[in-house]
């Protein structure tokens, strides 16, 4: 038996099936009293299922045995809520014959569970199985065995539904189970499906409460708590609302028509329950409020109080304690320093935020980490006639994050699209996975803020990842996320997605009454990567009927996938010559019109008001029911734009709603993002695959890594392989590096060239000259020994001695395009595959494309074609196209290497000369290191900072 220190890294907070929180941790000697109390609350039937006999109480010996573990051969874990046990699991190491064993002699363990009856059905045992299996694998245990009575169907289901490879038998009235603990595709799928359901449910409990208490409600109007109470009440909350202040009189009071109490516990003692508590007390009083909520079995918290991580180290410690305390009581937290949450569903109508008005109901899910951005988003949607389905402004987002909201919105029937403003990533890999799963059905649009600050915004208690912006774009692109750069673009995209269908392609018709505006729109569409047709100029004299006819024709044209209508105030009516100061003139500006009022269809509009109700009605009627998107670009027609997007209200109101933009680049930008997303979604229906390639020796490569990487090397520290080891390791994956021979003097260079065969290349390998042909460090096509010796002399005379230059001789490769292929491990994002053209395009212009590993054949093809300089590979200016199939295969081989061997933290192939037939890898470097721990493959656990 090997005594191990207390394994603090086994502690974890997990979300259970019903959305509640439990803490999983190792059991120790100090837990004796908790274990006895727990066992007393377990039914006799559950005890019988655990011990196969009546077992009313634990003996002192049992208590000692179940609380004293070596954390190696014997391990016990407990799930706790409020510090008390609700379930336990234990394993004991055995050998192949089931006898007690120690260390490497035993790769099996017998496992057993016990769950308090009141908590059965919450998924506690499934969560414990995930965690005890991870512990076992860490300790070298490969199989679990379990014996279960047939009547204990719930426990049998826990094992059989886990997704592990297993064997099952029935002997002597007992079900015998053997589980192979190696994770399988099915076990990972099961774990992630459970995570999805649990985290979605935990958010639902926050956004659809049946009762809310505002803790910190002032006795007089004004103040943060009283404002929140007013907003919830005025918003029409459909559930029960309570005001809480410890200074209220005993027996309760009335606060503006809302019952007031001294504590949340007092509400519970009166027979009522509170689902959500909105905490608005000073930070130093929040722990007392959280304890009160925990004692009353509150399900979740929105903490608007400030004074946490945004204030410095002391506030950071206070924030960590807030999360720890809330989770210990099974509660999730939005905030602290939060703006609040909104739910516009008619059966909820929750405005637990600092927004004074309840937004109109919409179908956009909104998440932001910034109060000011949240205000801007709500205001911007309101001006455009839209609203959210649900809205969360998470402030410091110490617990609930954008990942949790993605879990919820994926299945939320009230949400059609998701808009997110993110300033930091807590778990980029998980975000990518969840965003991709959501984007299959619903668009996800993201603004990633704080790109260049190199730091996490104040208050965000997350690891500083410093992911390069190009890698973030790759994450988003592969996940199908529509990335925009500004909040305005976020709102523009939301407007489009809320009102229009996705385009089937990138062909765009442009029509309107301004030739100049049409040409500007055409140019903007080309710049955005769309394929616009020549603009149709309806002339400035065009009326509503002309617009409607042209739009109807464009929508019916099979050669277009979307239509952009350009509009300026109409010319050729009395509006241009009318005197607005003459009250007898019919053009006198009317009172502000209701955007939802269709107006007089014959009304030519009011240019001063920026209105044209007849044109708005005509366009909406023509676009109604179309399966192609329509957008409008307008100048000086703001009121008409409001009419185009206004909800249809009342009989005879136009049905179709059209997004309108003040500038061509904004309209076609939203359209281009939607077209790109639609193409991604279509491609997901036929996803790429990781092909089976020949000449792959994974076992041999793994053995090379074990031999070359010093055992026990700390994460991040490693070794750069020499040329020979590099060539050997890459060769295991079918990547051949063209051999280069050292040339420390002219004679050795000549001998090397003779062995390799002329023509040859002479190049330096000094770090400051590596891949710098522009500095004269590379001499090519040396046809004979004379050329070689002459080049050697010129090189050393100009750049330095051989000891400094480290020259090598290499056989010439066929002519082609020089490229660079890399793979590297980002601590937050994981392994990333990169590609670009060597030299100035990648080094000076940053023209490099990225994909996450493992890459599919589709990813490799897109990688080659997504760089701006890709035409160089496909016959630009009459050049012969290169062998892109060979290049894609190389990318896949590098991806497989990085995926199979996480210790390979960097691969750099440069240059890779791609010719018309095949390619040549002329330079290669490989670095090995102990990889950073993966947080996305272990058992389910909430992030802990």
For the termini, the CA-CA separation is 33 Å
Look at the helices and sheets and give the structural class.
alpha/beta
Give me the count of strands. Answer: 39
Estimate percent helicity: 25-40%
Explain this structure to me?
This protein has 945 residues and is α/β, with parallel strands linked by helices. It contains 28 helices and 39 strands. An 8-stranded mixed sheet has the order 1-2-3-4-5-6-8-7, sandwiched between helices. It has a 7-stranded mixed sheet with strand order 11-12-10-9-13-14-15, sandwiched between helices. Helix 16 links the parallel strand 23 and strand 24. Helix 15 packs across helix 20. The radius of gyration is 33 Å and the shape is flat.
How would you describe this structure in keywords?
alpha/beta; 34% helix; 945 residues; 39 strands; eight-stranded mixed beta sheet; single chain
Compile the SSE list and pairings.
Elements: E1 12-15, E2 21-26, H1 32-40, H2 44-51, H3 60-67, E3 74-81, E4 84-94, E5 108-115, H4 124-138, E6 143-148, H5 153-160, E7 165-171, E8 174-180, H6 185-207, E9 211-215, H7 224-234, E10 240-244, E11 253-255, E12 258-261, H8 264-269, E13 276-279, H9 286-295, E14 300-303, H10 313-328, E15 332-334, E16 340-343, E17 350-353, E18 364-368, H11 371-383, E19 388-393, H12 402-411, E20 417-422, H13 428-439, E21 444-448, H14 469-479, E22 482-484, H15 487-499, E23 507-512, H16 515-527, E24 531-532, E25 536-537, H17 544-556, E26 562-567, H18 613-623, E27 630-634, H19 638-645, E28 660-661, H20 664-684, H21 698-708, E29 718-720, H22 723-731, E30 740-742, H23 746-756, E31 760-764, E32 778-782, H24 785-799, H25 802-805, E33 807-811, E34 817-826, E35 830-837, H26 840-843, E36 848-852, H27 857-866, H28 884-900, E37 904-914, E38 919-921, E39 924-929
Parallel strand pairs: 5-6, 9-10, 9-13, 10-12, 13-14, 14-15, 18-19, 18-20, 20-21, 21-22, 23-24, 23-25, 23-26, 26-27, 27-28
Antiparallel strand pairs: 1-2, 2-3, 3-4, 4-5, 6-8, 7-8, 11-12, 16-17, 16-19, 29-39, 30-33, 31-32, 31-33, 34-35, 34-37, 35-36, 37-38, 37-39
């Amino acid at each position: 038996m090997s005594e191990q220190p207390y394994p603090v890294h086994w502690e974890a907070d997990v979300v259970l099936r019903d959305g509640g929180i439990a803490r999983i941790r190792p059991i120790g000697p100090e837990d004796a009293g908790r274990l006895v109390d727990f066992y007393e609350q377990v039914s006799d039937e559950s005890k019988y299922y655990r011990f196969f006999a009546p077992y009313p109480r634990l003996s002192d010996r049992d208590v000692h045995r179940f609380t004293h573990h070596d954390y190696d051969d014997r391990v016990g874990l407990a799930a706790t809520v409020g510090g008390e046990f609700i379930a336990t699991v234990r394993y004991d190491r055995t050998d192949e014959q089931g006898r007690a064993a120690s260390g490497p002699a035993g790769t099996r363990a017998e496992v057993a569970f016990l769950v308090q009856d009141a908590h059965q059905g919450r998924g506690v045992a499934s969560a414990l199985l995930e965690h005890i299996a991870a512990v076992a694998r860490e300790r070298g245990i490969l199989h679990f065995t379990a014996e279960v009575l047939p009547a204990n169907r719930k426990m049998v289901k826990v094992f059989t539904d886990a997704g592990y490879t297993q064997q099952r038998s029935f002997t002597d009235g007992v079900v015998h189970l053997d589980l192979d603990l190696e994770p399988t595709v099915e076990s990972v799928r099961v774990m992630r499906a459970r995570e999805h359901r649990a985290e979605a449910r935990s958010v639902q409990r926050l956004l659809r409460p049946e009762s809310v208490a505002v803790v910190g409600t002032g006795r007089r109007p004004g103040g943060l708590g009283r404002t929140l109470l007013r907003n919830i009440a005025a918003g029409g909350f459909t559930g029960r609302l309570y005001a809480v202040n410890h200074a209220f009189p005993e027996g309760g009071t009335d606060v503006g028509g809302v019952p007031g109490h001294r504590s949340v516990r007092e509400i519970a003692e009166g027979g009522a329950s509170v689902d959500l508590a909105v905490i608005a007390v000073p930070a130093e009083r929040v722990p007392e409020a959280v304890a009160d909520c925990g004692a009353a079995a509150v399900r979740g918290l929105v903490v608007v109080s400030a004074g946490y991580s945004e204030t410095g180290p002391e506030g950071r410690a206070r924030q960590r304690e807030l999360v720890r305390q809330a989770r210990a009581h099974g509660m999730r937290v939005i905030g602290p320093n939060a703006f609040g949450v909104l739910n516009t569903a008619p059966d909820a109508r929750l405005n637990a935020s600092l927004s004074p008005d309840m937004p109109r109901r919409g179908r956009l899910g909104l998440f932001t980490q910034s109060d000011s951005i949240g205000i801007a988003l709500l205001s911007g949607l309101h001006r455009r006639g839209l609203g959210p389905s649900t809205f969360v402004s998470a402030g410091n987002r110490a617990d609930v994050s954008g990942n949790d909201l993605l879990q919820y919105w994926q299945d939320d029937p009230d949400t059609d699209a998701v808009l997110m403003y993110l300033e930091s990533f807590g778990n980029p890999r998980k975000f990518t996975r969840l965003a991709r799963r959501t984007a299959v059905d619903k668009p996800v649009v993201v603004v990633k803020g704080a790109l260049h600050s190199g730091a996490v915004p104040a208050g965000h208690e997350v690891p500083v990842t410093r992911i390069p912006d190009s890698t973030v774009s790759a994450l988003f692109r592969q996940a199908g996320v529509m990335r925009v750069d500004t909040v305005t673009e976020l709102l523009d995209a939301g407007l489009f997605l809320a009102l229009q269908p996705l385009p089937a392609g990138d062909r765009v018709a442009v029509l309107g009454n301004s030739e100049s505006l049409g040409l500007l729109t055409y140019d903007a569409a080309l710049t955005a990567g769309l394929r616009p047709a020549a603009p149709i100029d309806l002339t400035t004299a065009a009326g509503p009927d002309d617009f409607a006819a042209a739009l109807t024709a464009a929508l019916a044209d099979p050669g277009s996938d979307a239509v952009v209508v350009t509009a300026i105030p109409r010319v050729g009516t009395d509006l241009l010559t009318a005197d607005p100061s003459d009250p007898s003139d019919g053009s006198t500006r009317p009172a502000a019109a209701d955007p939802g009022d269709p107006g007089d269809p014959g009304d030519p509009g009011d240019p001063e008001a920026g209105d044209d109700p007849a044109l708005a009605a005509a366009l909406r009627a023509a676009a109604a029911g179309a399966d192609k998107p329509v957008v409008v670009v307008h100048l000086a027609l703001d009121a008409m734009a409001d009419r185009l997007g206004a909800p249809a209200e009342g009989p005879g109101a136009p049905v179709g709603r059209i997004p309108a933009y003040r500038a061509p680049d904004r309209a076609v930008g939203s359209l281009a993002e939607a077209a790109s997303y639609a193409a991604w979604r279509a491609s997901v229906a036929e996803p790429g695959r990781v092909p089976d390639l020949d000449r792959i020796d994974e076992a041999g490569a793994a053995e090379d890594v074990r031999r070359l990487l010093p055992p026990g090397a700390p994460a991040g520290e490693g070794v750069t392989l020499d040329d020979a080891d590099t060539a050997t390791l890459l060769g295991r994956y079918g990547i051949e590096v063209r051999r280069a021979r050292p040339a420390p003097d002219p004679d050795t260079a000549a001998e090397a060239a003779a062995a390799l065969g002329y023509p040859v290349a002479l190049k330096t390998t000094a770090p400051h000259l590596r891949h710098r042909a522009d500095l004269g460090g590379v001499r090519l096509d040396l046809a004979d020994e004379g050329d070689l010796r002459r080049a050697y002399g010129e090189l050393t005379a100009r750049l330095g001695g051989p000891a400094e230059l480290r020259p090598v001789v290499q056989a010439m490769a066929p002519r082609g395009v020089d490229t660079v292929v890399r793979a590297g491990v980002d601590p937050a994002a994981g392994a990333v595959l990169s590609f670009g053209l060597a030299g100035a395009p990648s080094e000076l212009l940053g023209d490099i494309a990225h994909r996450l590993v493992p890459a599919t054949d589709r990813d490799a093809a897109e990688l080659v074609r997504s760089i701006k300089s890709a035409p160089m590979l496909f016959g630009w200016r009459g050049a012969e196209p290169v062998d892109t199939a060979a290049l894609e295969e190389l990318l896949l081989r590098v991806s497989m290497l990085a995926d199979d061997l996480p210790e390979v933290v960097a691969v750099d192939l440069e240059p890779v000369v791609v010719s018309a037939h095949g390619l040549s890898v002329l330079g290669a470097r490989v670095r090995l290191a102990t990889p950073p721990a993966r947080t996305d493959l272990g058992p389910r656990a909430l992030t802990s900072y």
